[in-house]
Amino acid sequence: MELRQLRTFEAVVAHRTVTDAAVALDLAPSSVSEQIRTLERDLGVALFERGPRGMRLTAAGERLRGWARRLLDQADQARRDVAEARPVLRLGALETIAAVHVPAVLARLAERRPDLVVEVRSDGARDRLLDAVAAADLDAALLLDTGNDLGGLGFGAPAAPLAFLDLDPVPLALVAAPDHPLAAASRLRKEDLYGQRLLVNVPACSFWLAGERLLGDRVERVRAGGVPVMRAWAERGLGITLLPWFAVADQVAAGALARLAFDIPGLSLRLVWRADREALPGMREILYASAASDAVGLPSPADHGAARR
């Protein structure tokens, strides 16, 4: 059993087909297939069920998944220790929050772990970030979520042992043009919003999901685009939109937008990682160093049951 075979095994698990795994690894599909067959032959068990919809792990494959990640992590740690390399945190982040919230996290890490090298990868797709964490291509990822479970906002999570910690609150605001009929109301009820045009991005967008939880299907959704487009359309009176407060605060202060008087539960800046990677030397302390020191209910890094799974 070789490390390269375990990396190939993880790639097939993450991408579900030999072809996609080969693309990710920059290998020929025949090479990926041969490595998997060799690994299965060496172990004496079938690791995958082959089907028209891709590769699914067998019970033996599920057992190997945890071992593969631990062995690869230990090999990486040994390589860094021998080379006396600085520890590296590969951190993913949603593009929506990369400009505003990620710098504060990086500043905390720089203050508390000056020895740490942080490599940031921003992405507009939450699913890609979560898949990268599950496949250990990223050590952790920052995204928006709510509730006591991962995916409480309404998105699915990969079948991997993921843990998370909420770092900072992310307030939301429902905004409209200053001359919008709802802008003058001193207080709005949910029923007042029914039938309104809600400017949205795509169904996977965090703010679409937040609006879905808040208003269901009682509003008319108008697809506009990303945050700048939704904000600009709202300024021009084309509808109302639900956005993070940091994205509209300047426009509200300047009078270009009005914040509607409607109570909206905020979201959380959530750090997600593989729970089984906490066993790596220093990894748990690195992850918790990213949290604000005054975070409510922040568990101690020594409390191994604190992070939610």
Protein model, in words:
The longest helix is centred in the first third of the chain and has 25 residues. It contains twelve helices and twelve strands. The chain is elongated, with a radius of gyration of 23 Å. The protein is of the alpha/beta class. It folds into three domains: 81 residues, Arc Repressor Mutant, subunit A, CATH 1.10.10.10; 105 residues, Periplasmic binding protein-like II (D-Maltodextrin-Binding Protein, domain 2, 3-Layer(aba) Sandwich), CATH 3.40.190.10; 88 residues, D-Maltodextrin-Binding Protein, domain 2 (3-Layer(aba) Sandwich). This is LysR family transcriptional regulator.
**Approximately what portion of the residues adopt beta-strand conformation?**
15-25%
Radius of gyration: 23 Å
Helix content: 40-55%
Give the count of structural domains. Answer: 3
Helix-strand pattern, N to C? HHHEEHEHHEHEEEHEHEHEHEEH
**CATH superfamily of the largest domain, please?**
Periplasmic binding protein-like II
CATH domain fold name of the largest domain: D-Maltodextrin-Binding Protein, domain 2
- Oligomer classification: single chain
Distance between the termini: 31 Å
Number of strands: 12
Helix and strand content put the structural class at: alpha/beta
Shape: elongated
Structural features:
alpha/beta; single chain; 5-stranded mixed β-sheet; D-Maltodextrin-Binding Protein, domain 2; 3 domains; 309 residues; Arc Repressor Mutant, subunit A
Can you lay out the helices and strands and say which pair or pack?
Elements: H1 3-15, H2 18-25, H3 29-43, E1 48-51, E2 54-57, H4 59-83, E3 88-94, H5 95-98, H6 102-112, E4 117-123, H7 126-134, E5 140-145, E6 162-170, E7 172-176, H8 190-193, E8 197-200, H9 206-215, E9 220-223, H10 227-235, E10 240-244, H11 245-254, E11 258-259, E12 267-274, H12 283-289
Parallel strand pairs: 3-4, 3-5, 8-9, 8-10
Antiparallel strand pairs: 1-2, 5-12, 6-12, 7-10, 7-11
